[in-house]
Amino acid sequence: MANERLFEEMTNVVIAGLPDKARELANEVLRAGIDPLAAIEQGFKPGMDVVGEGFAKGELFIPDLMMSSRAMQEGIAVLEPELLKRKQELKTLGKVVIGTVQGDIHEIGKTLVATMLTANGFEVRDLGVDVSPQRFVDAVREVDADVVGLSALLTTTMLNQEAVILTLKEAGLRDQVRVIIGGVPTSPEWASEIGADAYAENATEAVEVVKGLVQA
Amino acid sequence: MRLPIVERLASGEVLIADGATGTMLLEAGLPTGTPGEAWILERPEVIMKLHRAYVEAGSQLILTTTFGGTRARLKAAGLAVQVTEVNRCAAELARRVAGDEVYVAGDIGPTGEMMAPLGPLTYEAAVGLFAEQAQALAAGGADCIYIETMSDLNEAKAAVEGARRGCDLPAFCTFSFDTHGHTSMGVSPTQAAQAMAELDVPVTGANCGHSPEEVLDFLPQMRQAAPDAYLIAKPNAGLPRLVKRQVVYDATPERMAELARRYVELGARIVGTCCGSSPAHIAAVAAAIQTR
Questions:
Q1: How many angstroms separate the CA of residue B23 from the nearest CA in chain A?
Q2: Which of A212, A101, A93 minimizes the C-alpha distance to A145?
Q3: Cα separation of A74 and A19, whole Å?
Q4: Contact criterion met (CB < 8 Å) for A62 and B186
Q5: Count of CB contacts below 8 A, A vs B?
Q6: Å between A183 CA and nearest CA of chain B
């Protein structure tokens, strides 16, 4: 019962976006000898789910998402040595390479997607902004990615989402990796036009779509 | 000779602003990935041609092409050392086209960096960046400082403070409410207008955004929160889509003109358009407002 109350508090500090409190509670988990993996999955993680849902509905915004994920990540960092000691691992749902395509320096949307994927158990390699097709391809090969995420916020740069897909084909990697696209001017129609596997409208939806892609 | 702009607004007149800069420069051949600011020094004739097209279409207030003109943004383009030159020159180009009658608004956009605690940019550093830009815009002959497309309230406040530190011109500040009726950082029109009223910002409003129709909801909210402010409506021509690989914005000049008339009915005193619009949109808006 005591565990449950502690887990509930952990959920609440993630929702409130309080990194200091998250660390404090993580230390309490360690002191009490509670299973750190259970604490993450039943404590921190449900908080992130609530925040993701609120974000998708337009009740919460970028700062909420960022502070909540920071709280969760700092809390997990406290628990990590104990996870290692117990030879436990956070379940990895898959490997994702993500970036904003060449010529485009819009960062926030892509970073939010990376943050939400990480918070939901994906291993994410964030290549940043203005990423050339070749860098995407190299990273996909290097990390053996399951999914590659391409962000574009301009009508002029969304054409470079297609360039990445073509470069993946030339490199013979297209069949090994699923491609998801996003960004204001993009759409499901654009995704199918350029031969991407999926489109997501926001960071919360991206998590569900990427989960679907790795299971397919 | 023109009155100081806030006095002119006090007379009750509605001023027509201009339309898009970025999307128009792309159409004029600006390479993808090159910021428009690069053309201020390289291709001043293109910048002046754009201003002239808007003035001929009926703009009484034109914005300098310095949306990304803070040192933070120019750094990415390798133009950081020229921050003063770029901004001053942009204001001079606009002034040359504007002459004595048309107002030049010294345009300032977000730094592109997240403010602390979310990101590395401190309030004080942001004030410094904005002050530097505002000072150069004023030196080039701007009539006001026009801060736009703000989403973080702290950054907007830093921009107002910076503008006032950098020069004596009045500072205006408008926000992009593009996310479920809020800015992407979660600021509502009411909160934005209230904050600007507390800082005695004489002119505030909505620009860019998600759809021009939504501005019809934002204006009354801002009016109520800041009854004394003059309001700006300067939305996108809808959102861009690619149709057969050609960029299409949903809102036609006729549609924008119809909306502009309603913005004025709701109290807007400066009306213009943003991304995806052209001088044709402004001509339609100007005709609609002048004959209302």
A1: 9
A2: A93
A3: 6
A4: yes
A5: 53
A6: 11
| DSSP class of A148 | E
Q: What is the DSSP letter of B201?
A: -
Instruction: Give the number of other CB atoms < 10 A from CB of residue B41.
Output: 15
CA nearest neighbour of A39 among A48, A51, A50, A30 = A30
CA–CA min distance B35, chain A (Å): 10
Task: Round to whole Å and give the CA distance between A52 and B78.
Answer: 37
The helix or strand, by DSSP H or E, that contains position B90, with its residue range, turns out to be helix B83-98
Q: Which residues contact A182 (CB under 8 A, 6 or more apart)?
A: A109, A110, A113, A149, A150, A151, A199, A200, A201, A206
Phi, psi of B37, rounded to the nearest 5 degrees: -60, -25
How distant, in Å, are the alpha carbons of A65, A165, A168 from that of A171? Answer: 36, 10, 5
Residue pair B120/B114 in contact (Cβ under 8 Å)? The answer is yes
- Give the position of tokens 């209230």: B194
Chain-chain contact of B239 with A61 (C-beta, under 8 angstroms): no
Phi, psi of B149, deg, nearest 5: 60, 35
User: What span, in angstroms and rounded, lies between the C-alpha atoms of B110 and B126?
Assistant: 10
- The torsion of the CA quartet B221, B227, B229, B235, rounded to 10 degrees, works out to 20
pLDDT band at A36 (very low <50, low <70, confident <90, very high): very high
List CB contacts (< 8 A) between A60 and chain B.
Answer: 186
Tens-digit pLDDT profile for residues A77-134: 999 999 999 999 888 999 999 999 999 988 889 999 999 999 999 999 999 999 999 9
Report CB contact under 8 Å: A103, B182: no
Note whether A58 contacts B242, CB cutoff 8 Å.
no
ipTM above 0.90, yes or no: no
CB-CB contact of A55 with A200 (8 Å) = no
- The answer to whether A194 touches A210, Cβ cutoff 8 Å, is no
